[in-house]
Design brief:
Elements: H1 3-28, H2 36-49, H3 65-77, H4 81-106, H5 109-124, H6 135-153, H7 159-174, H8 179-190, H9 194-217, H10 221-235, H11 241-255, H12 260-272, H13 280-295, H14 312-326, H15 329-346, H16 348-353, H17 356-364, H18 369-382, E1 388-392, H19 397-402, E2 405-406, H20 414-417, H21 423-437, E3 441-445, H22 460-472, E4 473-475, E5 486-491
Parallel strand pairs: 1-2, 1-3
Antiparallel strand pairs: 3-5, 4-5
Helix pairs in contact: 1-4, 1-5, 2-3, 3-4, 3-7, 4-5, 4-6, 4-14, 5-14, 6-7, 6-8, 7-8, 7-9, 8-9, 8-13, 12-14, 12-15, 13-14, 21-22
């Protein structure tokens, strides 16, 4: 067989095996309980489908793109966890296709296929929370599409620069961290001339300004600015560089725990870029994308596991670069098979035997995501559709399961517990909103992970919640409810307007 044909055949076999594995695992685990971020996005998406704008009943510092993306998934596939995970499966498959197209242009047919296969496996990995639909997955698809347009624009028409910019702007709307990928795109366009870079910048600006106009038209632009700019600035200022370096070292060891073989192949790719028969343009793309992708995980020095999803395309392309450099299709397949085999052996329980709930517990420990399903189902069957409920804790997934609106926009307690200047005001606002709504049901969350309280945290909201539930509510004693971490209360008969001291 012609060597070129042999490499293509090998690449097709490789990609087919990996895609089949990823599809099997993702659909097998699609019913895993929603975790906290997914609950937020799902609840916000549910509200959008009801005509309620972001930031009106769900306050958070994230840009609204993923809220709207979730609303599309919920409308298309249904309002449940499986629908969200099916949507995630399609999104990651589309991202893998674009990784292949990028790789084919930069590396060649085999290198592109190897990159797509590596991305598919690493995006599935539980150590980056791969089967949970975080905003990083949603940001990747438009970011990669924008970069592909940009790569094509170097050989084609100028309008593709504007299209690339618009897609990169959408990526930023999905997750603010993608701004570094957008900046990388603008810098790469600058190589083709200042005017082309301006077209990319105009496309980015058009996406952001369109979103701002929509939010302004819905009357929530003020809330959007406060949460995504003013509060977000305080949030990313909490950690020091020294603590960030320590966190990064730990995070890198964790996210590469099962996929270390692919990270080593990527390191080989980075080392051999200068030796391989690649043009300066291709080297610039691979190195620049790697640097920009690393920058996406840095803001705030939190280095959370799912942030590293934004690095995976760059890592995968470096894997493809190394295997392309190897030359021999047989040796390249053996190297890839070794990395894949190590991953499968390490993660065999996760991939093939653990149930969706067992995976949730194994990854998230005592976070009450499993219990939230029962509480949400109970509230949905014991309340009217127009009733408000209150969750005093950071479990927005309960609102989604219950299909009921929140009595307060504070769906997370973290900001209230942080040492930031708005914390006291936020606590007072949450108390006032709940007392004004007078919900029939209140859920008190005792799991520490739902609060992340510090020794210096203001505890007035906790003291008020204790007094409020004791004075006006009684615990619900129902076999359908979990026993402790999520305590459900029903308003006492005859109590109309309850207020509690604070």
């Amino acid at each position: 067989m012609n060597p070129t044909h042999a490499r293509r055949a090998a690449a097709l076999i490789l990609v087919s095996v990996v895609l089949a594995l990823a599809l099997y695992v993702r659909l097998r685990l699609a019913d895993a309980p929603l975790e906290r971020d997914e609950g937020e996005y799902a609840y916000a998406g549910q509200l959008i489908l009801q005509g309620i704008a972001p930031y009106r009943l769900a306050y958070n510092m994230k840009f609204p793109g993923t809220y709207y993306a979730y609303s599309v998934l919920l409308a298309a596939f249904g309002q449940n966890a499986r629908a969200i995970r099916v949507g995630l499966t399609l999104i990651d498959a589309a991202s893998a296709l674009i990784v292949f197209l990028l790789g084919r242009r930069l590396l060649g047919w085999f290198g592109g296929a190897a990159a797509a296969a590596a991305f598919t496996i690493m995006a599935l990995d539980r150590w980056v929370l791969g089967v949970f639909a975080h905003a990083t997955h949603f940001a990747l698809l438009p970011a990669l599409a924008g970069l592909l347009f940009l790569l094509r624009a170097e050989e084609s028409r100028a309008w593709q620069y504007a299209a690339a910019g618009a897609l990169l702007g959408v990526a930023v709307l999905m997750k603010q961290h993608a701004v570094f990928l957008a900046a990388f795109g603008a810098l790469m366009a600058l190589r083709a001339g200042f005017g082309r870079a301006c077209l990319v910048a105009a496309g980015i600006a058009a996406s952001l300004l369109t979103a701002a106009a929509v939010l302004a038209g819905q009357g929530v632009f003020g809330q959007f600015v406060f949460w995504t700019v003013q509060y977000a600035k305080e949030y990313i200022s909490e950690r020091t560089i020294a603590s960030g370096v320590r966190t990064l070292a730990f995070a890198l060891a964790e996210v590469s725990h099962a996929s270390r073989g692919f990270w080593l192949l990527a390191a080989g790719g980075l080392a051999t870029i200068g030796l391989a028969r690649t043009s300066s343009r291709e080297r610039l793309w691979l190195i620049g994308l790697s640097l920009a992708s690393f920058a996406t995980v840095v803001p705030g020095f939190y280095f959370r596991d799912h942030y590293f999803v934004l690095m995976l395309p760059a890592i995968a392309l470096l894997v493809g670069a190394f295997l392309e450099y190897v030359g021999s299709a047989t040796l390249a397949l053996m190297l890839f098979a070794g990395a894949l085999g190590a991953f499968v052996i390490r993660e065999s329980d996760y991939l093939f035997s653990e149930s969706p709930r067992e995976v949730s517990r194994a990854i998230y420990g005592e976070n009450p995501f499993i219990e939230a399903v029962e509480v949400g189902d109970y509230l949905r069957t014991h309340t009217e559709p127009n009733e408000r409920i209150a969750v005093i804790g950071s479990e927005p997934e309960i609102y989604f399961y219950a299909q009921r609106k929140s009595a307060t926009g504070y769906i997370y307690m973290y900001a209230l517990m942080e040492p930031q200047p708005y914390a006291a005001r936020m606590q007072e606002e949450m108390i006032a909103e709940i007392e004004q709504a007078q919900p029939n049901y209140v859920v008190r969350v005792s799991a520490p992970s739902s609060w992340d309280a510090k020794t210096t945290s203001d505890d007035r909201i906790v003291r008020w919640a204790d007094a409020f539930t004791q004075q006006c509510y009684e615990p619900v004693d129902a076999a359908a409810l979990p026993p402790s971490v999520l305590r459900t209360f029903h308003r006492r008969a005859g109590v109309r307007d309850c207020r509690a001291p604070r």
